[in-house]
Amino acid sequence: MQHEPSRFLLREGRPAVTPGAGSRPHNFVETLPTEMSVRIFSELDAESLCSASRTCRLWHHIIEQSEQLWRRQCLLVRAVCWREVDGDRRDGLSWKVTLVRNYSRSCLKSDWLRGRFSRLRSADELSGRTMTPLDAETWGEILQAELDR
């Protein structure tokens, strides 16, 4: 049985795999318009989006090139780290770079604000936890949340 290798073509400004004669496409991205693929990918959270971008070249290209996907994720991070996100955007950074720079910070800040670290007895209890620098205003918010508890 001979298998005709897939060919790479440019379709709508992105690489697309066209299956050989008689074969079916391997995934939805090969058959849907880019806009529909982006719509589907927009249902993923930031971690899942990054994992999906490692699935294949085509998925990577669509996800990497979609400012819409990164903007949506970045706006979720902005709800927690608005000063940092707004500053990065003012500095001209892309939505993706802004997300990457602030994602860990937003997770850490959320944990602090929710009181996850309220009952620490020593710094050793933070061992193994990834920490990231927080600005003075953020520490002020965290201290105020602790006082309010």
TrEMBL record:
Any single Gene Ontology cellular-component annotation: SCF ubiquitin ligase complex
Stored PANTHER family: F-BOX ONLY PROTEIN 48, F-BOX ONLY PROTEIN 48-RELATED
F-box domain ranges (all copies): 26-73
Source organism: Stegastes partitus (bicolor damselfish)
InterPro entries: F-box-like_dom_sf, F-box_dom
One Gene Ontology biological process: protein ubiquitination
Protein's UniProt name: F-box only protein 48
Superkingdom assignment: Eukaryota
This protein's UniProt keywords: Ubl conjugation pathway
Pathway entry: Protein modification; protein ubiquitination
Pfam family, one: F-box-like
Source species taxonomy: Eukaryota, Metazoa, Chordata, Craniata, Vertebrata
